[in-house]
Design a protein that fits this description.
The complex is a heterotrimer of chains A (about 230), B (about 250) and C (about 675). Chain B has about 250 residues and is of the alpha+beta class. Chain B contains nine helices and seven strands; from the N terminus they run ββαβββββαααααααα. In chain B, about 35% of the residues lie in helices and about 10% in strands. The two termini of chain C are about 40 Å apart. The model of chain C has no long low-confidence stretch (mean pLDDT about 95). Chain C is of the alpha+beta class. Classes of the chains: A mainly alpha (about 230), B alpha+beta (about 250), C alpha+beta (about 675).
Amino acid sequence: MSGFFKSSIGRKVAMALSAFFLMFFLIIHLAVNITSLFSVELFNQLSHFMGTNPLIQLALQPVLIFGVVFHFVMGFVLEIKNKNARQISYAKNNGAANSTWISRNMIYSGLVILAFLVLHFIDFWFPEMKVKYIEGDMTGMIAGTQEFRYFDELQHKFLEPWRVGAYVLAFVFLALHLLHGFTSAFQSMGSTAGRKKALQTFGKIYAYAIPLGFIIIAVWHHFNHL
Amino acid sequence: MNLTLKIWRQKDSNTKGQMVDYKVNDISEHMSFLEMMDVLNEQLVNSGEEPVAFDHDCREGICGMCSLYINGEAHGPDRAITTCQLHMRMFKDGDTITIEPWRAKAFPVIKDLVVDRTAFERIQQAGGYISVNTSGNTQDANAIPISKHAADEAMDAAACIGCGACVATCKNSSAMLFVGAKVSQYALLPQGQIEAADRVRNMVEQMDAEGFGNCTNTGACEVECPKGISLDTIARMNRELMKANLK
Amino acid sequence: MSVLNSKVPKGSIKDKWTTYKDKIDLVNPANKRHIDVIVVGTGLAGGSAAATLAELGYNVKAFCYQDSPRRAHSIAAQGGINAAKNYQGDGDSTYRLFYDTVKGGDYRSREANVYRLAEVSANIIDQCVAQGVPFARDYGGLLDNRSFGGVLVSRTFYAKGQTGQQLLLGAYSAMNRQIARGKIQMYNRHEMLDVVKVDGKARGIIARDLITGKIERHSAHAVVIASGGYGNVYFLSTNAMGSNATAAWKIHKKGAFFANPCYTQIHPTCIPRSGDYQSKLTLMSESLRNDGRIWVPKNMDDVIAIREGRKKPTELSEDERDYYLERRYPAFGNLVPRDVASRAAKERCDAGYGVNATGEAVYLDFAAAIERYGKEQAKIHNIQNPSKEKITELGEAIVEAKYGNLFQMYEKIVDQNPYKTPMMIYPAVHYTMGGVWVDYNLMTTIPGCYCIGEANFSDHGANRLGASALMQGLADGYFVLPYTIGDYLSDDIRTGPIPTDTKEFDDVEKEVNDRINFFMNNKGTKSVDYFHKKLGKIMWDKAGMSRNAQGLKEAMAEIKAIREEFWKDVKVPGSANEMNPELEKAGRVADFLELGELFAKDALMREESCGGHFREESAEEDGPQKGEAKRDDKNFAFVAAWEHKGEPANAVLHKEELEFKDIELKQRSYK
């Protein structure tokens, strides 16, 4: 089995598996965030649960980080290997004749998403880690009050237009990445021809819906600051 | 019609090559692309120059010998054909046509537009067969009924002519459509089941060893394949390899 | 007595092969390891032979000029492979296949060989299915059959329109298995340029590495030539561009007799020529004649109108069409054998009824089949009173399922949609029944040198039936040669490896090098193709579908003259020590220029019409068969085997009389 993941197809499968995990995570993430549009309380409670539950924090979070890092590293490794498989490039190449731009440029949409993740971590994850594990404040409260800090922090971040713009742009690239990535992951896992049509349709819905959800959240909070 | 050709010229595998411009005149739209190349070569021979070497043989789209990356596409701008079936009616008077060899690390250039595709041979040798001796007393051909659906699907996969357009087209120079086709043909037939696990493992291992890239499911190979081999064959190969390793 | 000994075993025809196999000398497995066999050519015959010999334990060295054995031109065979399986229960049997093949070959083949071919045909299908060849199947999961020209049963197995491809890939896969085991050493992109004889026996070859230009010596205990036919002597044919006669011709020049060179098959259903630049002709499978009806307009006015583009063929009513095959041959109709169909097309076109600009095309029309299938499908799907459009739609779907790839190929080449307008077809050179003379063991007149597949003269007599070439190639390679070669090799178990540093190898290598050096240094003014095209035109005009003494004599003289000009004025660019396609062509055309003359000489000698060889002087003069070919069994029931004596014109004729004990010789009638 270890030989399998060293093979080209094994690597594809590993890419697909990590992609599945990340796509599942996106659903959860969106599901939690979307509550911020209609219930501050629910959003705060869910955030607190996610942020403090030991199972999520100590088991799932490291897995998630591993998944993200793995997907990126493997993506780069494969890109380098694949580039290497053609040492002299064509003088004239008409890629558009036979494939979509996005399918040929996953590495670039991936890079944009990576850049976004850096920003996103600086915005939310690093402060979280600092508060919880360096300062040791696991209460989730705004200092000196009995109010959860999560919703406030969220809204605060979307005050500045440049950040909202950056987020929206990143989500557009996420949509592009998913447009190819979703069906591609299934294809890599060997999905059968019979399910192709349904998967393509579902993949499209997913690829548009998830990023759109995030975009709405970002924009909504920008314009509906309490 | 009159055309300008930009053609890759390379003396042999050890020499650096470059693009060279040629002009050909009075090309009929009914000519095949390779007949146009014949005209060029006749012209070169008569003027004392070395003709352009290119692979070709049957000239009816089945042997898989002809290659050529024409204007940025494997087997040129038409679909579901090989270069030898490409006709000049696809081009216009005054066009400039860029003609390059297949490009892949696993397909080194031998001369001009001729590349070495023996990597495909070694992949087939690694397991592209059913181990049955010629004996004259194998069981009757109708002893195992095979559903028409499976037989037809196996035939569709078996239609691969081994030309290498999939590799040439793929941005990753991946050979998975070629290998997937062969794996699929045997996986779909009861005769191929017995060695299925070893076959897919060995063929994939050899494919990787040859230096082909990985598949990123762009689907370009399926579009450019002269025989319309489906991307589903790659999915089936992936499945077969997983199955082989989970056993 | 003739110097030719066919070595046909005694006994009744049904038992000959079985009894012979039982008594043949075998080589024990341990000794096979010490015996090398060279196989030149990797088509159905060579590929299957190489694989089977290697399975048996011999060390095989296989050679092909392409970059892979899989590209040999057997791959282009479309229609199918015959086998006497009688799966359709329509009365087929080994005897009937044997009978049809001998009759189809116009009684000019060797009975015992043909019976053996029919006998092993069923094994071929079993073998191929076991290898994973995806033959077409019906809904019950059993193998499907179609019918082919010249026979009254359905015995043809097929894999879409790519039967040759699938069978070759089967043989290739068997080869791959042996290459992986190290039992076959594969030499791709190598061309055999001569055979080496030691003490009169074939002991090796000289080959050129087509990438580096290096001349190599290869030795073996036996040499098998499976290099295909010589149809490219006509320049334009359905053969591959590289198909050549060099291997066969070189062994001929070293002592192998060449038999019946004039027997050429002109295939009736090819895409017509469109211009002088044409490099090859494309075959449309004969299976199309199952559903297509062949016609030309009845009235000359319509012919002219169509040529000038004023009328479309679809505008002509039934009455205005001449379905000439159905008219002349009511019993077989559009399914007459190839030679008959070809000559009938030529007859109409010579009379001026050709339907394209060159005047060399007839229609192959699917409209009737589309309608018939459409109505049938409407019934099956319970569609009441289907519209004309619906019928066409349903019918086209069936025709597409059967011939889709052929229709697509036609459309790509001609730029017309054959579902909507009839196809245009014209005969083209396709297969050569003649070839190197072999005995029952498939050995040539050089001891230790064998010849199999299309390269030998073998089983098809003067005309080959559809779907029989694949059968013969695989029969020879899988089931005949691997046994019969043991008879010869059993004497070689103590010989040990054949050294290549001997005078015999030196001499032949020098000959080969001299010839290459000549080409490189000649500095003439005309390209190789110039001569090849000239030769092809003479062959087509004077030794094509119909021949006469006057034309053949002219052909011999003209070919000789071209040959002399070739050796004076041919120009080969580049150098010998690199990949040089022009140099390869030069060598091949040099051989065609000799073969062509022998071809004409053979055709001139054979003053009868038989199969693919139609002598205008020998036609029925009256009666219902008026104008049809007239065979002369009294004077010409023999194989003409030619011995090389310097020049082709000086070749000496040896006759192998043909005896027909199990079949009564009859005038072929397809009326």
